[in-house]
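Incident log, structure service

09:12 report received: a user says their structure output differs between two submissions of the same chain.
09:20 pulled the input from the user's history:
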Amino acid sequence: MIKAVNLTKKFGDFTAVDSINLNVKKGEIFGFLGPNGAGKTTTIKMLTGALKPTFGMVEILGMDMKNKEIEIKRRIGVVPDEPKIYEHLRGYEFLEFIISIYKLDKKTVKSRIDDLCNVFGVDYLDKFAGEMSHGMKQKLMLISVLMRKPEVLFLDEPTVGLDAKSAKILKELLKKYAEEGTTVFMTTHILEIAEKMCDRIAIINKGQIIAEASVTELKEKYGQSLEDIFLNLTASEDIKELVEEL
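09:34 re-ran on a clean worker, output below:
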């Protein structure tokens, strides 16, 4: 469902993503972990066609991103780390805008929107986006994607800004969708989410994938918790020493 071969992105002399390879299967929840600036968001942007790679190949749903970009974008869903919504639009106008772009059946989608709004507690569709908090915008962005039931979901830090109830609902909903065949590719800094949700994870650091396996396999290999494994692989300094110096 998601394939990347030697995927590379350079910005001048700086290599943000360095020859990474990915292969994510149908119905899998795949966690993409890494410290700030490791290349996670850049990778998602390349996988979803928002950023052209310097080198390498991307295939989504068996289609080459170079030749089938519009068809791929029609069938995937993307929730970015920062919900970008036109501030002069009301919530319902934003959803209508998305419905028109994807040429969706309004009657069918209306019932899905009502269900999702009810579940996530979204009762502010008449508000302007500019009046909404980050969490409110995040819920609206989630609804605009989930209402389409895309075959592949890309989520960049999806729980940031969500209240505890909404975050829990989202996690359970993603599990349900995966069981029904949706492929989920997500980044998160919350290792507990990755440990409980993801079938497999990859850890990226300085643009390179340094580990890829199921959580169970990683724990068996390193004999540590996921948090300790992650820190040992990505942190260059001893955390206790840093704290002592403060």
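09:41 both user submissions now match this output. Likely a transient worker issue. Closing.
09:42 reviewer note: The chain has one domain: 2-245. The longest helix spans residues 164-179.
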